[in-house]
Design goal:
6-stranded parallel β-sheet; binds magnesium ion; 249 residues; 8 strands; Rossmann fold; binds adenosine-5'-triphosphate
Length: 249
């Protein structure tokens, strides 16, 4: 993925880099047909946000990391877009948390699963990280979901107590919350069903949110969980920040 030639001083460099990563992943067969649409929706919200990490997003990332650190069985869920956009940082976060990473995709086909798993394993080797990567042999199902999108690993998603699901679909998010898990979502759309239903929602671009968490994990040993954290107030603050950013232009 390093054949990207755009100039880093280009005002849309980060956005162009993410688009490039999706194009490469698409060629490798990692993405669902709707992947570009999902990304485009994210980009639109990021534009409204001013393409920056807002104070409420930073607070949500801090709480998310604290909760994942305190969990007995944390797990990170990865779909095609997440693997395409932020594979290395997801692996680094799994390594920092000493937890497994599970490939779990909405439109599951053996070919896409294989394409995503082989890419993640390639990057894991390149980074020299000792992370358990699950997804190749699901042996359990998420209650309340029908068909192949319910498939998961017992030692991963099924038995986890806290789960990070970036760019997750609303139905699946709801099913995970109904299982009693602490569900952390990263979603630029504060109005999506996932954003609304999660336990903690980080309204930020995926790679920025992961960067915030990785920096915190490196700087501070173990974060304190904020007992007064208010999920709905943080979402409201995210929306208000978008409106302020729009008015300021
Ligand atoms: P829901 O099912 O939760 O109601 P949706 O159907 O509108 O949401 P999906 O297509 O299921 O949306 O998921 C894509 C979501 O991911 C969108 O809400 C979009 O804003 C968000 N998204 C896309 N790319 C990124 C990104 N790079 N960083 C953060 N969020 C993103
Ligand atoms: Mg959806």
């Amino acid at each position: 993925m390093d054949d990207f030639a755009a100039d880093p001083s280009h005002p849309r460099y980060a956005s162009l880099l993410m688009r490039h990563r999706l194009e490469v992943a698409e060629k490798r067969g990692m993405l669902a047909g709707s992947a570009m649409i999902a990304h485009g929706r994210g980009e639109a919200f990021d534009y409204l946000l001013g393409e920056r990490t807002t104070p409420s997003a930073a607070a949500a990332s801090r709480q998310a990391l604290a909760v994942l650190q305190a969990a007995k069985r944390p797990v990170l869920s990865v779909n095609g877009n997440v693997a395409a956009l932020a594979c290395d940082d997801m692996l680094r976060l799994a390594d920092a948390l000493q937890c497994p990473l599970e490939v779990n995709i909405f439109y599951r086909t053996p070919e896409r699963m294989e394409a995503i798993l082989s890419y993640i394993n390639e990057r894991k080797e390149a980074l020299g990280l000792d992370v358990t990567v699950l997804g190749d042999a699901p042996d359990a199902t998420i209650p309340g979901l029908k068909g192949p999108r319910a498939a998961c690993h017992r030692e991963g998603i099924l038995e986890s107590d806290a789960i990070l699901v970036p760019l997750e679909d609303g139905d699946r998010c709801q099913a995970l919350v109904a299982m009693g898990k602490t569900v952390v979502v990263i979603d630029l759309n504060p109005l999506s069903r996932s954003a609304q239903q999660a336990s903690i929602t980080i309204v930020d671009e995926l790679s920025r949110a992961l960067k915030t968490m990785l920096e915190l994990a490196e700087k501070e040993d173990r974060l304190h969980i904020d007992e007064t954290y208010d999920h709905h107030a943080i979402l409201q603050a995210g929306l208000a920040e978008m409106l302020r950013a729009m008015n300021g232009r």
